[in-house]
Every structure is written in structure tokens, then in C-alpha cells.
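Please, structure for the following, as C-alpha cells.
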Amino acid sequence: MNELDTSIQQIISRVKHLEIRARKLVEDSLSSEYHSVFKGRGIEFNEVRNYLPEDDVRDIDWNVTARMNEPYIKTYIEERQLTVIFAVDVSASSYFGSGKSKREVMAEVAALLGFASFFNHDKAGLFLFSDDVEKAISPRRDYSHLLRIIRDVWYYEPLKRSTNLESSFRNMLNMLKKKAIIFILSDFLDTNYEKPLLGLSRKHEVIPIVVHDSMEQHLRRPSLKGWRNNIWKTLPILADLEDMELKTTETISLSGKTASEIYRFQNYYRKLFKKLGLDYAEINNQIDYFKTIELLLRKRMKKR
């Protein structure tokens, strides 16, 4: 689907309930403490004033002091507007889903967080990535700009099928010049991206949101009622599984549970996130993932 085929009105009708929920989250749950959820605030210059004995001499403005023949200091105020970046995985694996695709879940989560940032006067930007960053939208605070971001998360057609988190994170680090809060929405089905993720987390505030599908955890043979079920259990059941990114097919047996390779990736990112001290959430289509995101924000608020 071409991005021009999707009107703003379609997006509005699809995410209106998320806008209402985001407003309630901010106004009722987080209220004025919303910004304390993040440590990404900076300071900006306010004015100069006469130096007082209790002031820090490091804040003296020597140029003004020289002109006025008496000491003046620079004063600063907290920068209340944050820059929020949504980095969304659009590789082929994001289209997998039992009922609702991972891509749809990511779009809904991005919409919820996007509206929350908008109601708090923050700027929002976007990275869409597969084996590299495919599209970047600069941060702005504007309602139509936010709807454009949500539309692209939902409907953008990727140029590549594969995933390369190392390359994608490295280019995000090079492209982002100002400090930002980065929500990374991906299934994280990759490894060897520790170095660029470390670089991102040192310069920015990184919050991974891992999106999986419940069917990925294991495959079970279907259950039938009555005598048919006993016969069914004795049959050798084979299934052809297609790798959506590599376009390869593998035949596996469905005798009992078949553990997926997903556990290898889970062990990798869980250890890495813990090592880097990153707060993160793991969600799937079988849980109330909005509630999980809200709990993550409240947990961060308590730690501040």
C-alpha cells in the first residue's frame, strides 16, 4: 500500500481510542510527574543577573562581567520539552502474527506513547529500520506530524526483508545529534549489536520494547476432542516453516512441543539490557500490552 493511499482520516478513526487512553494515562496516572519518568532533560540559558555570595563561580559570565565592571552570572532553567524518538523494526519478521501481527502491536504502542508525548508538549520523531535505517522523520511537535509518524509505523512498506540491529543502531547514533528518549520497538531477533546499543544508551535514554507473538514461543500439534485426539497423538505430524526474512523453508516435527530459536535471542537481549542498565518491556499479542507499558512508565517514575 502506497503511503498516499492511507488518508489521515483513516488513521484518526483507527487510533482515536488510543489518543483517549494516552490522555487519561498522562492526566490521571502520571500527571505533572510525567517528565520525571525520563532522565533525558537538559537545561537551557535563561538570563544573566548580579552575582551573589552563594552562587557558583563557575556560572560567572566573564564577558558581561568585564563590560559591567561587576560580576554577573548566567542562570538556567530546566528544559521541559523532550525529544522522543520511535525506532521501529519493519523487517519481514514484524509481519508475523497469530491474529494480530507484531507490526500492528508496535503501531498501537507507538501511537499510545506518541499521544502521551504530544500532550506533554514534547517533540516526536521516527526511525524505521530493517537491515539499516530506511526512513527517518525529524522531531517536531505537531498533531498532523504525529499522525504521519503513526501512519508510517502502520503502513510503510520496507525495502529490505532482513534484520541488522548492529547497522541500524550504529546509523541512528550517527544521525541523532541532540539528546533524545528512544523507544526501540522490535522483536530483537538478532545478536551482536552490543557496541552500538551501548553507544546509544550513553548518549541518549534508550527504552527497548520487545514485541513477540505467542505462537513463536513453541508450536503445538492441534488438540481434538474424543477418540480422534488419541489417534492424532500417534501420527507423525510435520510442518513446513518459512523464514519470512531469508525466504527459506524448514520442515520440523510437531511431536510434543518444539522449542523455537527465539529463546537464544531472548537470553541475548535480556543479559545485554541488564548489563547496560536499561529498563525494558516484553509484550505479545496475548496480554494487555498497554497495561505493561503503563506499568513500565510508573516503575521508572518511582525510581527517579
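Confidence is low (pLDDT under 50) at residues 1-5, 235-240, 250-258. The two ends are 43 Å apart (CA to CA).
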